[in-house]
Design goal:
- With 296 residues, the protein is mainly beta.
- The protein folds into two domains: 5-90, no CATH class; 92-294, no CATH class.
- It has one helix at 73-90; strands at 5-12, 17-18, 40-47, 59-62, 91-93, 96-101, 104-109, 112-117, 121-126, 130-134, 139-143, 148-149, 157-161, 166-170, 175-179, 184-188, 193-197, 202-206, 211-215, 220-224, 229-233, 238-242, 247-251, 256-257, 265-266, 274-277, 282-285, 293-294.
- A twelve-stranded mixed beta sheet has the order 5-7-9-11-13-15-17-19-21-23-25-28.
- Strand 1 (5-12) and strand 2 (17-18) form a beta hairpin.
- The chain is elongated and about 80 Å long.
- It starts with a strand and ends with a strand.
Length: 296
Amino acid sequence: MNINGTFTYYVKKDGHVILDKDGGVTYKNDVNITDDNLEYVKVNISSPDIFEKDLKKWKLKIDDNIKPTWWSKKHETEAWLTLDTCIMMYIIDGGEINELKDRYIIAARNVKIENILGSSKIQFITGDSVIENMQDDSEIEHINNFVIIKNVKDNGRVKNMWNNSYILYMQNNSIIDNMWNNSRIKIIKDNVKIINMREQSHVEIMHNNSNIINMEERSSVYLMAHNSIIENMNYISSVKIMEHNSVIKNMFDNSIVENMRHNSIIKNMKHNSIAINHYKEEIYMSNAKNYKLIGK
């Protein structure tokens, strides 16, 4: 899978290039970009594959095609040299890294990272990548294609899980924004929150006050226990076992709980949702008059 890449930065009239941690700078508000005397030129250098190592396959474009009279071969050379710097600073392609601390990475693939710490942020990680630990306030925007994260804790956050990506263990106040495409998590606990589960994504075990806000599109949980909460189940989502004071607030659209027990609670059932209590040999359906149910 290719990831389109574009680096944006500003080349000054004196030939210097300005970068910040995101690969660009804030354009001065008092600069008139139509004025031939402007002090900065905004430059975009892009490639269909951000991991492309052959710089000849990248393309340089002056933003809005505004080229002042002072622009010269020297300025263009500085722009290309900066691309090489950006690739070294913001792209990881293979290898092993013991620690990323307070780093900003645009894309990574086929890499093993022992620890992601501080306020580190990775925009996209893919390939056969493995992360042993994410902690502090670290964040990943997208994980894809069989990436494995073994432990997420503290305030660690993954915004999007795609395509069979896998997290082994989540704890403390860590967050997943979205799970897609058969992505999986083994265990969530403490105050871990998953905001959305979609497209057959799966959580094996949730317990100790962990929380899922929305489940839909055949997403599933095998076991929810010990005061864990699911806010909403929609579109044929399912829970295999719920027990030990776990709570589902709303079940809709053919969602199902296969086995309720140990004081688990479903507060509201609608639209052909079903819950089964094997211990009591009872089946609860959304059209029942009393849909506030307690499993033994």
